[in-house]
């Protein structure tokens, strides 16, 4: 999903992993009664979770877990293909913005009953915004595994040089700081890095507004609302004023080296950069950076409730065993260990309080942000719409569109993408022989007679 | 009667393979292109609608399809002649009597063809990096303003064309080289005796004798270039500003990113028709040239 997530585990850990995998290999032949769970995990998480599995297998001698790695970049597509081909795993790490999509096609098992009966997974201990991303139409389909939200990383020393002793709290203040930094840095250096191929910054700004990005229960786009237009204006102004370079993340070969050089003072990123910056910043700049909650329109604002959840596929024959693995991975103790291994932030408050996170001032910005994290609209088409937001944002940044034009274009595209969803919702809500619910002005032709369907308008 | 039976029996294995792996999938894809098959239909077949030619009609109304078509044509129209010139030039140099170390150069020039596209593409991305790339370093040291090769929508496609030409010319070069070697030496000898210049020899002997080779190379290159996909997929992911989205790339996103298989099948058929038409036109053009 993100190129900047290209994290590596240290060599020592890779060796450890090799050792940890050995017993698994030896056990293979012993018991025929052992169930084998297939668990698909992504990138660095899959490497880290392999180290936790031996403990689980010791505690549950009847279960063997086979962890398979998916690359983040192709994961969404591979999972859909697996579902289409009927070869889904028992359980899987699923980006939480994808849950509604997989739930809508009926690929996932509802977990509500299992959570109710569980003594380990307690809803009240989880950050509410994160938990909510797993609830689709009142039913729970996943248990948060780790959380990811976007906030500001910034160079304290450069900000001080520009005359500010604290990170920005509002957008207006942030804009003043960016202008001052750009004036100080001159051409060839910038105030902020917002890679043009990422939709997360613009979506985060959109989430900070009061209105939702889709309206009428996810039937239409709501990008022409005054709130989202303000977000677009702000995003566009960052590029128009030259505060951010017109670059994609492929153009930044080494984020930390550029950050250390002062090529930009701010960047928006996720929790994995806490450990990356600690490891990669030169010694003289070790204390020159910090993180801060994302500034909103009036004070600290919301941000994306991202991260991954653990889900069980409907086609699994070992749902009980899969749930036992989810419970194991949700134990606060295991989650703290997982954080140490890979740097992913736990979704449970107890896991925060019992780990090294509690004393880390840079992590506390994430804690603050997580309490305010908001889920993106939960429609199966969201990934597609978010991609369009990124593409339109890029055109806005290049000055090809004004904020108003961008909003209109986004609404058109979202409406076209959501056309099939509207048809299905109306079909469901239509009682036999009666017309559909009034009020949204939609004419719904009966199934099989629709010959005119507007597609992607752009 | 018996003879027919035997003939069919012998043809059967080939026909069955053709049917199962070509005809049936193509017909199924055409059927698919008349429906709105998507993720919802995958989950529940009742969500599938027959929409006749609606996919095709909305495709024609879709700006992104037209820009993808424009980018594909740009790539073909600019890339094909460049590839053919480069490969013909290289083949002529290799074939020249003055050339030394022929087998070394033949291997060296052919090497890009056998390298892995993804690996080379990553290296090109470094070479063409706007700030640290070798190419811009050379430009700046010559006093030329650096170019944002992959970040500027005007330059991204030319960079990809350059990459494709470099990657593919070696293959055609080998074909041209074989074609050149099959031209009888006596023709050149006779021409020299008649006092023909090197240029005249090239125009009146080499080019006409290479015509069948040229046709083959032209059609192969064109068919390959219309299916532009891997280069933008690896180097630019369709960006910047979707300036390197080709028809096949669009089809790939619609089909395998968003699972709009109906739409994607329609795109595939439009691309097929286009390639078919262009190939027929190309063949006609060459044949007419032959008669003159």
How much is the radius of gyration of chain B in Å?
Answer: 24 Å
Low-confidence stretches of chain A: 1-32, 432-458
Order of helices and strands of chain B: HHHHHHHHHHHHH
Q: In CATH terms, what is the fold-level topology of the largest domain in chain A? A: D-Maltodextrin-Binding Protein, domain 2
CATH class of the domain at 65-259 in chain B: Mainly Alpha
CATH superfamily of the largest domain in chain A: Periplasmic binding protein-like II
Description:
- The complex is a heterodimer of chains A (458) and B (292).
- With 458 residues, chain A is of the alpha/beta class.
- Chain A folds into 2 domains: 3-148 and 306-374, 3-Layer(aba) Sandwich (D-Maltodextrin-Binding Protein, domain 2); 151-304 and 381-413, D-Maltodextrin-Binding Protein, domain 2 (3-Layer(aba) Sandwich), CATH 3.40.190.10.
- In chain A, 45% of the residues lie in helices and 14% in strands.
- Chain A is built from 19 helices and 17 strands.
- In chain A, β9 and β10 form a beta hairpin.
- In chain A, α2 packs antiparallel against α14 (332-342).
- Chain B is mostly helical and 292 residues long.
- Chain B has a domain at 65-259: MetI-like fold (Orthogonal Bundle).
- In chain B, 76% of the residues lie in helices and 0% in strands.
- The longest helix of chain B has 33 residues, at 63-95.
- The A-B interface holds A 76-77, 80-81, 83-84, 101, 104-107, 196-197, 246-248, 250-251, 253, 380, 384, 387, 391, 394-395, 398, 400, 420-421, 424, 447-448, 450-458 and B 36, 38-40, 42-44, 46-47, 49-52, 54-55, 58-59, 61-64, 125-126, 129-132, 150-151, 153, 236-237, 239-242, 256-259, 263.
């Amino acid at each position: 999903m993100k190129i900047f997530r290209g994290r590596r585990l240290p060599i020592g850990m890779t060796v450890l992993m090799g050792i940890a995998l050995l017993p698994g290999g030896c056990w293979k032949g012993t018991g025929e009664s052992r169930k084998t769970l297939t668990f698909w995990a992504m990138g660095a998480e899959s490497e880290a979770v392999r180290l936790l599995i031996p403990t689980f297998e010791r505690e549950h001698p009847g279960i063997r877990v086979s962890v398979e790695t998916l690359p983040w970049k192709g994961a969404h597509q591979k999972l859909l293909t697996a579902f289409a081909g009927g070869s889904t795993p028992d359980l899987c790490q699923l980006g939480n913005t994808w849950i509604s999509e997989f739930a809508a096609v009926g690929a996932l098992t509802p977990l509500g009953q299992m959570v109710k009966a569980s003594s380990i997974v307690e809803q009240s201990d989880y950050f509410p915004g994160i938990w909510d991303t797993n609830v689709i139409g009142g039913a729970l389909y996943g248990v948060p595994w780790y959380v990811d939200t976007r906030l500001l990383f910034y160079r304290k020393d450069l900000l001080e040089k520009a005359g500010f002793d604290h990170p920005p709290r509002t957008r207006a203040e942030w804009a003043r700081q960016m202008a001052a930094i750009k004036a100080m840095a001159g051409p060839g250096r910038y105030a902020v890095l917002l890679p043009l191929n990422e939709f997360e910054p613009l979506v985060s700004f959109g989430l900070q507004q009061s209105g939702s990005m889709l309206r009428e229960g996810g039937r239409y786009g709501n990008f022409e609302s005054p709130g989202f237009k303000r977000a677009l204006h702000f995003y566009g102004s960052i590029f128009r004023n030259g505060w951010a370079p017109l670059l994609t993340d492929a153009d930044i070969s080494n984020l930390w080296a550029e950050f250390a050089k002062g090529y930009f003072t701010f960047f928006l990123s996720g929790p994995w950069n806490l450990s990356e910056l600690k490891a990669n910043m030169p010694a003289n700049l070790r204390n020159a950076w910090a993180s801060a909650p994302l500034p909103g329109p009036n004070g600290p604002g919301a941000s994306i409730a991202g991260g991954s959840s653990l889900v069980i596929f409907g086609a699994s024959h070992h749902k009980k065993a899969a749930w036992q693995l989810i419970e194991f991975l949700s134990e606060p103790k295991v989650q703290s260990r997982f954080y140490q291994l890979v740097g992913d932030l736990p979704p449970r408050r107890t896991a925060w309080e019992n780990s090294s996170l509690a004393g880390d001032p840079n992590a506390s910005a994430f804690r603050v942000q997580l309490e305010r994290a908001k889920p993106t609209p939960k429609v199966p088409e969201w990934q597609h719409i978010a991609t369009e937001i990124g593409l339109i944002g890029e055109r806005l940044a290049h000055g090809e569109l004004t904020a108003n034009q961008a909003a209109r274009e986004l609404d058109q595209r979202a409406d076209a993408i959501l056309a099939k969803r509207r048809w299905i919702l109306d079909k469901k809500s239509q009682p036999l022989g009666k017309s559909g619910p009034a009020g949204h002005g939609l004419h719904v032709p009966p199934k099989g007679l629709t010959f005119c369907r507007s597609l992607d308008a752009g | 009667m018996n003879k027919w039976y035997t003939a069919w029996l012998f043809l059967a294995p080939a026909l069955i393979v053709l049917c199962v792996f070509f005809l049936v999938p193509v017909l199924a894809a055409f059927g698919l292109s008349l429906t709105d098959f998507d993720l919802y239909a995958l989950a529940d077949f009742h969500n599938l609608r027959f929409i006749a030619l609606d996919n095709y009609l909305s495709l024609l109304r879709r700006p992104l399809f037209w820009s993808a078509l424009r980018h594909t044509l740009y790539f073909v129209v600019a890339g094909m002649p460049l590839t053919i010139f480069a490969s013909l030039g290289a083949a002529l140099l290799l074939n020249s009597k003055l050339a030394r170390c022929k087998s070394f150069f033949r291997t060296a020039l052919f090497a890009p063809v056998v390298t892995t596209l993804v690996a080379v593409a990553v290296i090109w991305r470094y070479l063409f990096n706007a700030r640290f790339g070798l190419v811009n370093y050379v430009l700046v040291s010559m006093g030329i303003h650096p170019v944002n090769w992959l970040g500027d929508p005007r330059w991204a496609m030319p960079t990809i064309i350059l990459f494709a030409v470099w990657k593919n010319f070696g293959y055609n070069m080998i074909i041209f080289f074989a074609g050149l070697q099959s031209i009888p030496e006596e023709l050149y000898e006779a021409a020299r005796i008649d006092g023909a210049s090197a240029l005249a020899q090239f125009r009146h002997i080499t080019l006409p004798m290479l015509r069948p080779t040229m046709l083959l190379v032209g059609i192969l290159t064109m068919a390959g270039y219309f299916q532009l996909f891997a280069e933008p997929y690896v180097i630019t992911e369709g960006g910047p500003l979707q300036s390197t989205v080709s028809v096949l790339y669009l089809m790939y996103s619609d089909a395998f990113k968003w699972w709009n298989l109906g739409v994607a099948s329609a795109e595939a058929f439009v691309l097929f028709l286009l390639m078919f038409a262009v190939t027929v036109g190309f063949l006609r053009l060459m044949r007419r040239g032959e008669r003159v």
